[in-house]
Each structure stands twice: as structure tokens, then as C-alpha cells.
Amino acid sequence: MKKFRQITALLVLGAATLAQAQVSAPKYSNEFLSIGVGARGQGMASAQAAITDDVTAGYWNPAGLTNISTRYEASLMHAEYFAGIANYDYIGFATQLDSLSTLAVSGIRLSVDDIADTRYLIIGDQIDYSRVRSFSSSDNAVLVSYARKNVFVKDLSIGANFKIVYRNAGTFANAWGFGLDAGAQYRRRNWLLGLMARDVTSTFNAWSYNTAELAAVYTQTGNKIPESSIEITLPKWILGVGREQKIYKKWGMLAALDMEMTFDGQRNAPVSSKLVSIDPRAGLELNYNKMAFVRIGAGNIQKIKQFDGTKKVTFMPNFGVGIRYKQLALDYALTDLGNESEALYSNIFSIKLNFK
């Protein structure tokens, strides 16, 4: 009864906090958690819900963790976006608890450093560059994932993760958040099916602002001083299908297709309605003897309105290669974050180690 009263008190306190704070559900929230981890997944345009089978499954679909073949598995990834302005890092570790279940911990960080703080550049009519300071802005997340093979349905695995989010913009603002993801995978012969529910209970970010740092400048510029608020990330569903096929002797192929479904209003996606928007992405991996890999992918399909009023369909192409030797795997991916008129290519490197 004592524990029950404590839990009830926490729930009431949380409800009161939500009631007092401003609550918003923007269309794009915690987008750093939508970028993806591992050069393999990036090279295949993030089509991973059905085929992910290593430590990175803690992010892509926790159910895939049950396919890890060794007792321990670890992975590191680093990427630089926009000519090195933004740094994206990932670290993951997974371990088999027993023959049926696997546990994984993942860390993700997206940061922009050395942002100029020019609030005190001009005082009166004097410009003094020595007053310019710099600060960093970062988005951070820790995911704790658990997966288990279903003992009643053969070849079915289910998994979930609990994520803690911390975001900050220097000393001006920060937010703490939490949420849940859930997933399932079903493997039958050469076919692979996957379902991933991101932010299945919605993810809540509680923002707080250092008004003492902002008040003077905001008042001078006529801006409204921000207030503490709750930002909600709404659920999205990803349905994936894949097929593994032997081509010739030691050559093999793995094809994957993901359909990401969002329910926060119309988006610029191939299938778009007020109820649901569907964004497809596809990936293909060719391998030689499971040692050398070549990957391609396409996603982010959009209709872009031109200056003459016509619309043009664009997409984001990805490319990757990989090599695996014994317990070590090295992967590289080249992604295009722009369009044909202003390509913004990013290089992604990752390393994975299996050990007993």
C-alpha cells in the first residue's frame, strides 16, 4: 500500500505539472532521433525495421537484438554533417542474457559547437568583438533496449526500449524527456517482416528557460520571453519487409523496404492525407561470402514546387560499403542530405566488434 501511495502521488504530481505547463505537439520533434545509427543502415537509406540483426537494432528495432550471434557486441559511429558544423556520435553495447533474451544500451549525441553569442557585441553605439562568446547546443539520448524470442510463435521476436532525452542550448535552455519504443520481427525462410512503433506512448520533453540570460535582449528586440513548456513527440509506425536471396555461388543479396507512417497531419510524402502520411524507403545489400558488402538506398521522396509552378519529384540517394573479418566489421556510408542543385554529402564511419 505504501508503494501504491507513492506511485499515485507521482502520477498526480506529473498530471499537475502537465496541467500548469504549456503543452505543444510540433510536427517535427526530437528529430535527431530520426537520423539513424550505423553506416550499414545509413547506406540502405534507413530501411532496417525488418532486417536489423546486430547491436544497432537497439535503435532500429529492438526485436532484432535476438539475432546477435555472440555473447557481446559493441559498435561505434561518427558522422559530420554540413561540412563539419554538426557532429553526430553513437555508441552501442549488447549482451545475450540467455538463449531467449538480449539487453542493449545505446547512446546518441548530436552537437553544434562554437556558436557565437553576440548579445553583448553592441553596447550603446560601441562595437566590441572581445565581448563575443561562444556556446554549444546538443541533443542527447540514452536507450535501454530489451528483446526476447517468443516461445509460443516460432521465428517471432519482440522488443522494446526506454529512452531518456536531454537537450540543451548553452545556458539558455534545456529539456529532459522520456519515452518508449516497441518492435517486433518475424523471420520465415528467406522473408523478413518487421514492425517498429516509435514513441508509442508519445515522448515528453519538459523545457525550461534561463530567463535571466534572455530577458534583457528579448525586451530590447520586442520578443516574447519563452515560458517553460512540455513538448510532445507523437507516435510513428514503421512497417518493414525484407528478403534474403542467394544469387550465385558465394554471392548473396538482401533487399528491404520500409513504410514510415506518421499521424500528425499532412506531410510532403508520396502518400499524404490528414489521417496518415506514408514515407517509403528502400535499400539493397549485395555481399560476397558474407565478408564484403556493397549497399545502395533511396528515401526522403518529396514533391518540390519549382519557380514556374510545376512540381518535381526528388529523393535522397545513399551508398555504402563494408567489410567483415572474423569478429570485426568496418562500414562506410555516403549520404546526400540536399538535392541536385545543392548537394550536401556526409561521410559516415562505423565499427562493430563481436566477442565472447
Report on the structure:
With 356 residues, this protein is mainly beta. The protein has one domain (23-355): Porin (Beta Barrel), CATH 2.40.160.60. The protein has 4 helices and 20 strands. The chain has helices at residues 2-20, 39-43, 57-60, 211-220; strands at residues 22-24, 72-81, 86-96, 101-117, 122-123, 126-127, 133-149, 156-169, 173-188, 191-198, 203-209, 229-233, 236-248, 251-262, 271-272, 277-288, 292-305, 311-325, 328-336, 345-355. A 14-stranded antiparallel barrel has the order 2-3-4-7-8-9-10-13-14-16-17-18-19-20. Strands 5-6 form a two-stranded antiparallel sheet. The radius of gyration is 23 Å and the shape is globular. The chain starts with a helix and ends with a strand. The model is unreliable at 1-22 (pLDDT under 50). Keywords: Signal. This is PorV/PorQ family protein. Residues 1-21 form the signal peptide.
